[in-house]
Amino acid sequence: MSFCDAKEADLVFLIDGSNSISEENFSTMKTVMKKVVDSFIIAKDKVRVGVAQYSTTFQEEFYLNKCFNNSAIKKEIDKIVQLKARTFTGTGLKFVRSFFQPANGGRQYDRVMQYLIVITDGQSDDKVENAAIVLRENGIHIFVIGIGTLNYNELQKIAGFSNRVHELKDFQQLSHNMRKIVQEICNPGDKPYPDCEIDISIGVDISEPVRSPSAISLKQIIQAFLPRILQQMSIVNNISCTAVTPDDIRFRYQVYTGSSSTLFDSGFESYNDEIFQKFWAVQTTVETHLTVDFLLSFWDRLISEDSANVKVIILLLFYVAGMT
Fold this sequence. Notes:
alpha/beta; 2 domains; six-stranded mixed beta sheet; 11 strands; elongated; repeat
């Protein structure tokens, strides 16, 4: 039975393959990773695992969407060949970010917790701080295991928190300390708090005739770029949170005609492109005008709901009147 029976997570190992690690210790590292894999239920909708290796260069071993069962992942780990060069941890941190993106199996947009476990045995030959900050700002939780003689300050710059830094004397202690990390992944203590919820209302003022060239042109621009902007907004972190976790950002789309009627109201939901496209299909068929009633329509629907956990309300308006 797996240690975490119902846990969802994206877990990536970033392992040091430098020549300061003996073949025996590199083999130990691979064995411990396989034990960690057996601590979880590996499946497409449960825990996904990926592995990257760094030395002087960065090497993708396998992404999060390569294997969806324990045995397949362990076979991939067995195939890993040590790079045996210098220790460029900063380079590894910079390039490992791609592992967490949707194209490579990352589920950040699905609100799945994402974890990076860095295992290294020496001080980095390049700077680590900026690359680590980018990872943490994208909601990735970093654990660092440093083995041997190391620079503790450097390890803390990577993890961001002292309780996520594990200093070991040798590789024989790796298995025991890895169990502590697995336990924390299974029982995270910093899930989003209620004050991490942000509701964003989206309204569009189309005050030009709906079929005018200027209105049609701007609608095409908005349809092309607004979904990308909203998708990026949906993963912004640390706006109103005290925990280092993704904010719970929800969007609401409304089409108000000005005749005291609302043609479309999605309610507050996490970002979903299908919902946006439904909203836009309605929006492009009517003229809307920036009036007091238009603005009040957003406010009235806000106060009529239970908004006790809402901390930030943003009303986005696109004004196209006067374009030629």
